[in-house]
């Protein structure tokens, strides 16, 4: 059974999108302020998706240059990518940002779902504080 809609349904996730002085040549950084538990989000809330990685070749060989940041990307394309990340039933477990969350997806999907549902509920309760 996949992970579809577990991450986003009913949740209110606060995040900060920070733009470097070199924008649009370099990508912004997106960091969740709301606590998140996802294989592709670091413990500090930083989102790890290709579109937010600096342009050029990936030194580890996980991404093609065309998957990474390009100056034609917009805030809309970033947000759509993050929405896709949160609603995908196939998080990237090959090169996770949060190794513990990736292990939990592989080994204890029920525990993973429980933890995520708890965070979603908490985000909804604190959304307008």
Keywords:
129 residues; Ubiquitin Conjugating Enzyme; 31% helix
Architecture blueprint of SSEs:
Blueprint: E1 15-18, E2 29-32, H1 75-87, H2 99-107, H3 109-126
The average pLDDT is 88
Kindly report the CATH topology.
Ubiquitin Conjugating Enzyme
**Unreliable segments (pLDDT under 50, ≥5 consecutive)?**
1-5
Strand order in space, largest sheet: 1-2
Shape-level CATH architecture: Roll
Query: Helix share of residues?
Result: 25-40%
Q: What is the chain-wise order of helices and strands?
A: EEHHH
Shape: globular
Individual helix count: 3
Q: Main β-sheet: number of strands, strand sense, barrel status?
A: 2 strands, antiparallel
Beta-strand residue percentage: 5-15%
Going by helix content, strand content and strand pairing, the class is mainly alpha
Write a brief caption for the model.
Belongs to the ubiquitin-conjugating enzyme family. 31% of the residues lie in helices and 6% in strands.
Task: Report what the structure shows.
The relative contact order is 0.23. Strands 1-2 form a two-stranded antiparallel sheet. By secondary structure, it is mainly alpha-helical. It has three helices and two strands. It has a single domain, classed as Roll (Ubiquitin Conjugating Enzyme), CATH 3.10.110. It is globular and about 40 Å long.
